[in-house]
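Structure tokens please, single chain.
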Amino acid sequence: MDKDNVLFFNPDDPRKENLDKISSNDDLNYVLNEADDGDTYPIALKLRLEITDEMGTVDDWAKSIIQKYGKSADGTIRRDILVPADMDLHALHYLIQRVFGWQNSHLRNFRLPDKVFDALVDGKAEEWGMLCGVYFRFPDDLNDKDFFWDDDYEDQDNFKNWLKSRYAKLEHYSNSIGDSYLNNQKEIGYFSDFVNNDPQGKKIFKGKSFDDLSLEDLKRIPDIGFGLDHLLERLALRDILCVKGLLLADAQKIREETNDLLREFSYLYMDILEDEDYLDTIDSDFQALRKARNDYFDVLREKNHFFGQPKSSRKSFEKTIMRFLDAKEKVNFLSSNCFEAINEICPDVSRITNEITYNYDYGDGWVVKITCEDEYTIRNDEENDEFVIVDAGLKEVSVDLADMVTRIMFDGKPVCLAAEGVNVMDDVGGIYGYANFLRTLNEGNRVEASEIRDWAKSMGWSGRSVMPKNML
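Here you go.
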């Protein structure tokens, strides 16, 4: 073992800066216990985020323009990042917004690769329904603010710092009712009853029962079909992503392991799942939180409006502030009531893919391909009676990388390791619109170039390169 290339968790190791924190850090102690038992427990993941089109590629024309004018050596726009393994998809959304220069102003979703999705649901509505609240989110009413529960940006805030506050933290959790297993299964129950017993449902699905429906049957219904494969954002990266060589071998094994986990969950939570009084109480809390959150966002919009008015009535503004504070307190109180039902009463999941996609702005059609390139785990080196950080191949990592992994474990702050291409922007028309923008900016006539540069500046685009270490 090369001791110069390993970070040792040893009190005598002078290179360790945070030794005083180790013994009091519950998460680390859990990890060390796992390592001592020989189990793998990733503490950090290396991800590659790369912008593509909706087909998962970028054509040669766009690549040549981006290579020429977008400060990219190979025509790609990508970021390599090191993140805490327990970061959830919700936090990753805000991180992606930050590293690519978007303004969090459009709809988004995360999806599994088609092959993995198909392996899980086997083309059956019944199988998909069982996994709502496990992997997938029952399609939302987008007029409901629940999905956007964390988008409480206030106009006086610094936008980049606001984004950072959403992803750079030690604890990740959801306050979205749509992330709850209990709520998703209730929605499935309502929908199943609609299909089986409602005259309109029978007409739409031609008398088929819900258990006999295929995914293709559901895809024909716009309100349901579009969101069938949207992932829950409370899912932690370490729970679904892993390095390619560690994946389950085939579709049958994926379904078997998923079904085993569901059976185990049903057994452990049998008392809760069969307690009608408890379920009614939770449902009542969910409904109260939905209403409170909708009211909160209405008054937040009103409050932000005042900051754009040079001559606002002080009395009206003060009343709005009081209503805002009351609404925020109510949301916080109800969120705490619902916390357990959203974050803890939910089945475990399998690490079923090394790749997911992030889809942003359904008009522009931005797609970010997210690939798990490596993972880092603490292992017990029994020969030297020390703990070391290793990669997915169980090879000890360098001191510099081990230091970054350790810091992430303690402060929850991800790191951008490498970046190719300058930031993009909203409302430019996706990857091909962006390439056309760069061409016009650099090859168009003076008037066109000036106009499009002014517009891009208004969208927050500068065209300047940002050092990877400063991106997050």
